[in-house]
Amino acid sequence: MNEQYGPIIRDGLWKNNPALVQLLGLCPLLAVTNTVINGLGLGLATILTLVASNGIVSLLRKQIPDEARLPVFVMIIASIVTIIELSMNAWFHELYLILGIFIPLIVTNCAITGRAEAFAARNPVGPSVVDGLMMGIGFTTVLVILGGMREVIGQGTLLSEAHLMFGEAARNFTIVVFEDYRGFLMALLPPGAFIGLGLIVALKNIIDAKQASKQPQNINAIAEPAS
């Protein structure tokens, strides 16, 4: 089990993260991540889309002709996104209004179509669902981290407007990081999103470089017998 799903989990969360490595789906990632709640809302919608689309594509992979593969994938994804959009409009209407056009634009997210084409169309249902879940969690993690960075720097709070997702009881969830903070507008604008994402990608590259530099030392330590 670990040998089958371990690489899938590592790829989705870190090694092949759609936002940090593949750099896919950047339009909604940069546009709506001015708060943690906005990023989390879009991220959860993306997770549901990835899991459902990967599962359905995997189930139907032997019935879908190669000539119509991509149109069928898009139709499946569009149907799932429509269900999610209508559900958000009904249950999370205020958050739905904030996210706006970026919910239906999930259909055009290359990360979702890419996973359907590259993985779900070639693998059984179990691994395909896990792949969609891990890719979605990896993407959502970046959304939330970037949203947290921009919210703290931009307006000095965390989890503002949490009631949009968690109900009226969550109005007190807001954490004031900086008292009497005047805010930093650029962090809330698109340039702040580009800078924040660049810093996160740079941090990941630094971590990967340090891990890669340790590997030869570990191999030599194993190869050399203890004196």
Q: Helical proportion?
A: 55-70%
**Runs with pLDDT <50, length 5+?**
none
Query: How many H/I helical runs?
Result: 10
Mean pLDDT: 90
Largest sheet: 2 strands, antiparallel
How do the strands and helices of this protein lay out in sequence?
Elements: H1 2-15, H2 26-32, H3 36-60, H4 69-91, H5 93-99, H6 110-118, H7 125-155, E1 157-158, H8 163-166, E2 175-176, H9 185-188, H10 190-223
Helix pairs in contact: 1-7, 3-4, 3-7, 4-5, 4-6, 7-10
Please, could you describe this protein's structure?
With 227 residues, this protein is mainly α. It has one domain. The chain is built from 10 helices and 2 strands; from the N terminus they run αααααααβαβαα. The chain has helices at residues 2-15, 26-32, 36-60, 69-91, 93-99, 110-118, 125-155, 163-166, 185-188, 190-223, and strands at 157-158, 175-176. It starts with a helix and ends with a helix.
Which features does this protein show?
2 strands, mainly alpha
Question: Concise description?
Answer:
By secondary structure, the protein is mainly alpha-helical. Helix content is about 70%, strand content about 0%. A two-stranded antiparallel sheet has the order 1-2.
